[in-house]
Specification:
Length: 155
Amino acid sequence: MAGTIDARLAELGIELPVAAAPVANYVGYVQTGNLVFVSGQVTLKDGSPQYIGKLGDSISVEDGQAAARLCAINIIAQVKAACGGDLDRVQRVVKLGGFVNSTPDFTDQPKVINGASDLMVEVFADKGRHARAAVSAGSLPLGVSVEVEAVVEIA
């Protein structure tokens, strides 16, 4: 029944933004068959970058998790656009790739990306369980602390 995922988002107090327009020579997502590949989403909220800085320096693990959660919200917005507005078409979150802007000695990238992973399970239940990578990056666009990309299967 259409609207189940939208109802879940409302229950969680999440209002999806309009899917962000690309800022360079790429697209927000590509669909091939029933797979949607979502380009890396950063910590944009209302068009403004949030959580600027490095994990292991100016950003705490808890703020990094909140940053990853914001990236996941932006991913869901892209998936909603790919699904013509119907998130109930999501069959499975297949994979997330998480990039953490961190100092060389920082090793809690998986804890940070849990912010995105946890949200996918909160929103999509078992369909939100996915394969994942969580890696360090020396820097990220706009100086943000986290970027997350996704592969999602849709009906």
